[in-house]
Amino acid sequence: MTDQSAYAQKLNAKLDEWQANIDKMKAQAERAQADGKIEYEEQIQELRVKRDEMERKLEELQEANESAWEDVKKGADRAWDNMSKAMQEAWDRFSSSPR
Description:
There is one protein chain. By secondary structure, this protein is mainly alpha-helical. The protein has three helices and no strands. It has helices spanning about 5-30, 35-65, 70-95. It is elongated, with a radius of gyration of 16 Å.
C-alpha cells in the first residue's frame, strides 16, 4: 500500500467517524428546546460544510498524481486540522449545554 492510499484510507475512516458524530449531534439538537435547537442547527451546518470540504480534499488526494501528492496532502492536513478543531469545539458545546 502506498503512502497516498494509506493516507486516503485513514482520511476516509475519519470522515465516516465525523459523520457519525454529526448525526449524534443532530439527534441531540432534535431533542433540544427551541433556543438551543437553533444554535445546535447552526453548529451542525458549520460541521457539515467542513466535512464536505474534507471530502473534496480526499477526492483531490485520490486523483493526485505522484508529483502533486505532497501539495494535495498539505491542503488535506490543514482541512483535517480545521475539522478536528471544529468537531472538538462542537462536542464541548453540545456536552455542556442543557438537554
